[in-house]
Amino acid sequence: CRADAHGAEDVNALAWNAAVAYLVATAGDDGAARVWDLRRFGPGCPSVGCFDYHAGSHLAAVQWDPVDESTLALCAGGALDAVSLWDLSVEDDAPPGAGST
After folding, report:
1. Cα–Cα–Cα angle for 84, 86, 87, nearest 5°?
2. Would you state the pLDDT for residue 95?
3. Structural contact between residues 28 and 12, judged by C-beta atoms closer than 8 angstroms
4. What 3 state SS string does 72-86 have?
5. Are 64 and 22 contacting, i.e. CB atoms less than 8 angstroms apart?
6. Residue 77 gets which letter from DSSP?
7. Rounded CA gap, 69 and 87, in Å?
8. 16 vs 21, 35, 46, 55, 99, CA distance in Å?
9. Which residue has the higher pLDDT, 85 or 44?
10. 0.85 exceeded by pTM
11. Tell me, what's the pLDDT at 20?
């Protein structure tokens, strides 16, 4: 994992995606989970996804769903003590009614 993956905060957990070998997720003391594409991993390369819903807490664990390659589970500790699921499926981000031309 990159030394600066979560800024100055510690990386607490790392998980490989068993179905998509080039995706890795990390969880840190900054309360964020990040997804990394190892095909473009290196100095100065940003994560391909950042989920900071648990900011202000720390993440103790991260795990990919063994059946659904696009689902990520996070376990937050501290005052939050919560588990969250993230679906990373690609969806159309166009606002409603903004049809394509």
Report:
1. 150
2. 63
3. yes
4. EEEEECCCCCEEEEE
5. no
6. -
7. 9
8. 7, 10, 18, 23, 37
9. 85
10. no
11. 93
Per-residue pLDDT at 32: 85
Which pair of structure tokens corresponds to residue 40? 């473009």
CA distance 66 to 93: 26
Q: What is the pLDDT of residues 16-55, one digit of tens each?
A: 999 999 999 998 888 888 899 999 877 777 888 888 877 7
The conformation of residue 97, written as its DSSP 8-state character, comes to: T
The answer to whether the beta carbons of residues 17 and 38 sit under 8 Å apart is: no
- One-letter amino acid for residue 50 of the chain: C
What does the block give as tokens for 46?
């940003």
> How far is it, in rounded angstroms, from Cα 66 to Cα 30?
26
44: left (phi over 0), alpha (psi -120 to 50) or beta: left
CA 76 – CA 54 distance, rounded (Å): 7
By the 8 A CB rule, do 48 and 56 touch? no
Is residue 76 within 8 Å of 61, Cβ to Cβ? no
